[in-house]
Specification:
3-stranded antiparallel beta sheet, AGP_Transferase, Kinase-like_dom_sf, 8 helices, two-stranded antiparallel ribbon, Aminoglycoside_PTrfase
């Protein structure tokens, strides 16, 4: 079910990219419950409909990809909330994954991610409205420019440490085929575009603070990827505590972690 306060916050931050929603009740007898909403039509195509599936781009293709990545960087910090329960939930899932045999990811990687959790949820690290299902199918883009035209499906959104949706940057700098993961030739330039725009929009200054923020954000992005790819989904779409071993998904994770 959509949280009205979260949708209101999303509209305050992202404006017309977030559709208005009207609640019409729930489907009688549905188990699990099925809630009915109506929303206006948003222009644009799913990112998957315009994504390039080749490594080397021409100048126009690279320009439109830069526009997409630049839009991804415009997260806005919000007031810090009590996050202990959310931190514990992530800790339990990472610990559960570390116990898996054969291992999905190396224990050294998972230990590093677990150790970073207190810093991610600390008072001096940005807490932002996080979509929690920021997938390529939930992002609508202008077919000509690749600028973001709309973002749908806010049912899992909550305030979380910045970066938990950052696996989308990984997905925006390459593509997956049956042969595995392929980085775009301009991946370093796309990453630079993202961070330049993020520093500008967030007004974070100072080399040391920027380095710390980027390091934690990249760790958060890895955790977000694990939550989305390595666990079965609950009925509401959130990650359960049951590990899901899919060779395609594990291959994507290992590409993300450079294994």
């Amino acid at each position: 079910m959509l949280d009205a306060d979260i949708v209101k916050l999303a509209k305050e931050i992202h404006g017309n990219l977030v559709p208005e929603s009207t609640f019409h009740g729930n489907m009688e007898g549905a188990d699990p419950p099925l809630f009915i909403y109506s929303m206006p039509y948003l222009r644009g195509s799913s990112y998957t409909g315009v994504q390039a599936f080749w490594v080397e781009m021409d100048s126009n293709e690279e320009s439109t990809q830069r526009a997409f990545v630049k839009d991804l960087a415009r997260s806005q910090p919000v007031d810090h909330q009590t996050q202990a329960k959310k931190q514990l939930g992530i800790y339990k899932r990472l610990t559960r994954l570390a116990e898996e045999s054969p291992p999905v990811l190396s224990k050294s990687i998972l230990s590093k991610l677990i150790e970073a959790l207190p810093s991610m949820f600390g008072n001096d690290y940005p807490q932002v409205l996080t979509h929690n299902d920021f997938s390529v199918t939930n992002i609508l883009v202008n077919e000509d420019t690749s600028e973001i035209a709309g973002i749908v499906d806010w049912s899992l959104a909550s305030v979380m440490p910045f970066g938990l949706d950052l696996d989308i940057l990984f997905l925006a700098t390459g593509f997956m085929t049956i042969d595995g993961w392929h980085d775009y030739g301009c991946k370093p330039q796309l990453q630079d575009v993202f961070w330049d725009e993020f520093w500008f929009s967030s007004e974070i200054e100072g080399e040391d603070l920027r380095r710390k923020t980027q390091n934690l954000a990249e760790v958060a992005g890895q955790i977000g990827a694990i939550l989305r790819l390595a666990f079965r989904r609950n009925d509401d779409g959130s990650p359960s505590e049951e590990v899901l071993v899919s060779q395609r998904r594990i291959g994507q994770l290992k590409a993300w972690f450079g294994e």
